[in-house]
Amino acid sequence: MLLAILLPFLSFMVRGKIITGIVCLILQITVIGWLPAAIWAVLSLNNARADKRNEKLIRAVKENQR
């Protein structure tokens, strides 16, 4: 989370989203664009964690139905 706030583009790069990371870096280079880039990275990270959590729950429900 700290990485997403301090270096938003690097947060995308670490998760394998290279093109998104480059776009975020371009946005982050501008002083005004750094805040939206940081917010974008944090929201993206939270969405990725929520997707993982949902997939785990779906797998658990499917296993219980068998």
Automatic annotation (TrEMBL):
GO cellular component: a single term: membrane
Signal peptide: none
Listed transmembrane segments: 26-46
Compartments, record wording: Membrane
Keywords carried by this UniProt record: Membrane, Transmembrane, Transmembrane helix
Family the entry assigns: Belongs to the UPF0057 (PMP3) family.
Protein name: YqaE/Pmp3 family membrane protein
Native source organism of the sequence: Chryseobacterium lactis
